[in-house]
């Protein structure tokens, strides 16, 4: 049983609580049975640490498990999960342009998986896919998504060459209602930053601007807006 924070394996877990080390080691942390089960179902490589002596994995003390937990209610299992290489693009793609809040990113991943937008592409400044708050907001759906982080401009140009139509959320007279759009087989939905929206550079590459008709309010939270559009356009 591991009982000390000075143990090298525990030091590694603590380092993986930062994005820098998650990127360096191509790995991330998950907490709790549900997340571990979903990761196993999808064939992710993983090292398991647990305070439950009846469970398979490296045994650590309850005190140490509590100290490693990022929530008020500590769980009895932690997984160090190896990231997977990106898969080929799905026909419907969700793209995030500098979405900042990890909860919004996690909710969007969850909705995207539910509505058939299995490939999710994020700009370098979008909140980390593997932030604990992001992972918790996905409710285990992170493991079903094809997650890609790369610059958007060059990616959009590549996608357009491959026959994708780019739809960008926007306000104004030039935008079309999401209900009036004929959604092609291959499409990309671009969502923007919570305050600034989609950047002008990305918007300039869009094939069509779209909006959600609302009453008495100007705009919706990005996670809510994205979820509504993906529901309407689901495969």
Domains (count)? 2
Gyration radius, in Å: 20 Å
Q: Mind telling me which CATH architecture of the largest domain this is?
A: 3-Layer(aba) Sandwich
Q: Helix and strand succession?
A: HHEHEEHEEHEHEHEEEHEH
The whole-number mean of residue pLDDT values reads 95
Domain tRNA/rRNA methyltransferase SpoU type: 93-231
GO molecular function: methyltransferase activity
Pfam family, one: MRM3-like_sub_bind
Domain MRM3-like substrate binding: 7-54
Description:
36% of the residues are buried. The chain has 2 domains: 8-82, Ribosomal protein L30/S12 (60s Ribosomal Protein L30, Chain: A, 2-Layer Sandwich), CATH 3.30.1330; 92-232, Alpha/beta knot, CATH 3.40.1280. It has helices spanning 8-15, 19-25, 33-41, 62-68, 102-114, 132-138, 152-161, 200-203, 222-232, and strands spanning 27-31, 46-50, 58-59, 77-82, 92-97, 119-122, 146-149, 165-169, 176-177, 187-192, 208-211. 32% of the residues lie in helices and 21% in strands. It is elongated, with a radius of gyration of 20 Å. Helix 6 (132-138) links the parallel strand 6 (119-122) and strand 7 (146-149). The model has no long low-confidence stretch (mean pLDDT 95). With 235 residues, the chain is α/β, with parallel strands linked by helices. The protein is built from 9 helices and 11 strands.
Task: Summarize this entry quickly.
The protein is an alpha/beta fold. It has nine helices and eleven strands. This is RNA methyltransferase.
Distinctive features:
single chain; alpha/beta; 60s Ribosomal Protein L30, Chain: A; 2 domains; four-stranded mixed beta sheet; transferase; rRNA_Methyltransferase; MRM3-like_sub_bind; methyltransferase activity
């Amino acid at each position: 049983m591991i009982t000390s924070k000075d143990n090298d394996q525990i030091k590694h877990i603590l380092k993986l609580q930062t994005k820098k080390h998650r990127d360096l080691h191509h790995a991330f942390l998950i907490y709790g049975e549900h997340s571990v089960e979903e990761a196993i179902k999808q064939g992710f490589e993983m090292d398991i640490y647990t305070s439950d002596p009846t469970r398979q994995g490296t045994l650590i003390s309850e005190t140490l498990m509590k100290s490693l937990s990022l929530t008020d209610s500590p769980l009895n299992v932690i997984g160090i999960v190896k990231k997977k290489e990106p898969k080929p693009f799905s026909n419907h793609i969700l793209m995030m342009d500098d979405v900042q809040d990890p909860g919004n990113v996690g909710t969007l991943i969850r909705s995207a998986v539910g509505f058939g937008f299995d490939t999710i592409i994020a700009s370098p400044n979008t909140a980390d896919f593997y932030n604990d708050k992001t992972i918790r907001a996905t409710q285990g759906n992170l493991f079903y998504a094809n997650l890609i982080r790369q610059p958007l401009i060059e990616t959009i140009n590549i996608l357009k060459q491959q026959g994708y139509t780019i739809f960008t959320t926007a306000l104004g007279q030039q935008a079309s209602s999401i209900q009036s759009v004929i959604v092609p087989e291959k499409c990309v939905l671009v969502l923007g930053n919570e305050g600034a929206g989609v950047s002008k550079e990305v918007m300039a590459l869009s094939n069509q601007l779209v909006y959600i008709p609302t009453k008495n309010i100007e705009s919706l939270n990005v996670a809510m807006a994205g979820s509504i559009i993906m529901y309407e356009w689901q495969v």
